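FAQ

Q: What does a record look like?
A: Structure on top, sequence underneath. For example:
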């Protein structure tokens, strides 16, 4: 039996984080954590180790990597970087965000287990829960998680997991992470926070009591809309072993080129998030004053119902803004979409470029119409991922498009 038949947390390269960066401020960790000059050549940037296997001097004797499904030095550098950004012992990267979610459920749960989650979940997560895991015997209750009493009432003896996503997608509601983690802790329930919308630059769920943090690195972490990837960060050795076992056994491993790109992305995460926050706020304020706009949802607006909580648990309000139109129809929403030119009509979010999305017909089309309405997703609802372009150009673009609605 080769050593690769067992999870190898004790010699995984990710776990040897350089002590030189773990105590540094976020900006320094963004640039340096997980990386050191390449031991073979001195290359300052971690190379793309484009190899499937690694030479062994004798069976089982190697320099930390055996086979690239299990680990690869470029991936290990990224995992060390992401772990440091979330203040975690372990970071584990996956081929996509949903592959990370899949690994958490398969690694930690068994048929009959029950999960409580939020009712305005990312559409792809909802589909995975309902259409893949429910038929395999996991049970889900979807509740408004901004209401802690509703969460408490949904908990059953067989509840194993609370799955939070905050701010929520696309309604930008804010869930009280610390409060729900405390509730879960006292019942021995694991808490996962999907931290994709905030990124570790604006929100650190492990500090607030979460057990696991999930990222779609496709979004702010990568930051340039040029890769698909996921990551899970945790302080639990047991969970890290379970997740690495999933990577090894089910093989949702990201390739080294994508890991290199994500690592390049995190070097500017703190700078990009600063500008996303600044532009997000400017766009939200502009829309709030516009006659053709209905309700604007942005936790950075002082009048937003979630402002106070967001201010408490986040260090910035991010670049996601959603709003309805005064004419709350699918047609009005579609007219707006066709009128922008700086904002590109596309799914996804978190890149340097601004994107515009119509959840009812795009990202959230997999949620049945009735479920959408129940969750408060109006027909005209528009979601913006505000990029890092010039603020004036963004406001002008929206102003021109709104004139045609
Ligand atoms: C995009 C996204 C995911 C899924 O990530 P992929 O990388 O697309 O698989 C999960 N959660 C949230 C909040 C997302 O925005």
């Amino acid at each position: 039996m080769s050593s690769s038949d067992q999870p190898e947390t004790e010699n995984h390269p990710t776990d040897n984080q350089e002590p030189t960066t773990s105590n540094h401020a976020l900006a320094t960790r963004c640039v340096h954590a997980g990386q050191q000059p390449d031991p073979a050549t001195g290359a300052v940037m971690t190379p793309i180790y484009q190899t499937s296997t690694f030479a062994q001097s004798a069976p089982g004797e190697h320099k930390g990597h055996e086979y690239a499904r299990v680990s690869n030095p470029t991936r290990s550098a990224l995992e060390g970087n992401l772990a440091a950004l979330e203040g975690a012992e372990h970071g584990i990267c996956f081929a996509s965000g949903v592959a990370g979610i899949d690994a958490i459920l398969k690694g930690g749960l068994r048929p009959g287990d029950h999960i409580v989650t939020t009712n305005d979940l990312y559409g792809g997560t909802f589909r995975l829960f309902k259409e893949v895991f429910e038929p395999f015997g996991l049970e889900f209750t979807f509740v408004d998680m901004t209401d802690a009493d509703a969460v408490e009432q949904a908990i059953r003896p067989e509840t194993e997991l609370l799955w939070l996503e905050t701010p929520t997608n696309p309604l930008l509601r804010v869930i009280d992470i610390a409060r729900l983690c405390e509730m879960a802790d006292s019942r021995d329930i694991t808490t996962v926070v999907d931290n994709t919308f905030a990124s570790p630059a604006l929100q650190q769920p492990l500090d607030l009591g979460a057990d696991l943090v999930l990222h779609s690195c496709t979004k702010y972490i990568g930051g340039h809309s040029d890769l698909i990837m996921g990551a899970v960060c945790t302080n639990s050795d047991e969970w890290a072993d379970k997740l690495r076992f999933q990577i090894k056994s089910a093989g949702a491993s990201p390739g080294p080129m994508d890991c290199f790109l994500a690592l390049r992305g995190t070097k500017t995460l703190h700078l990009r998030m600063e500008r996303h926050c600044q532009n997000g706020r400017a766009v939200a304020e502009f829309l709030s004053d516009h006659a053709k706009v209905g309700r604007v949802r942005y936790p950075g607006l002082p009048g937003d119902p979630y402002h106070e909580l967001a201010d408490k648990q986040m260090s910035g309000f991010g670049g996601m803004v959603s709003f309805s139109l005064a004419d709350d129809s699918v047609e009005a929403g579609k007219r707006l979409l066709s009128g922008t030119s700086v904002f590109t009509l596309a799914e996804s979010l978190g890149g340097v470029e601004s994107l515009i999305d119509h959840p009812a017909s795009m990202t959230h089309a997999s949620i049945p119409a009735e479920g959408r309405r129940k969750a408060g997703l109006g027909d005209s609802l528009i979601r913006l991922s505000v990029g890092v372009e010039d603020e004036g150009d963004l406001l002008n673009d929206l102003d021109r498009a709104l004139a045609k609605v």
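Q: Is there anything notable about this one?
A: Residues 1-17 have pLDDT under 50 and may be disordered.
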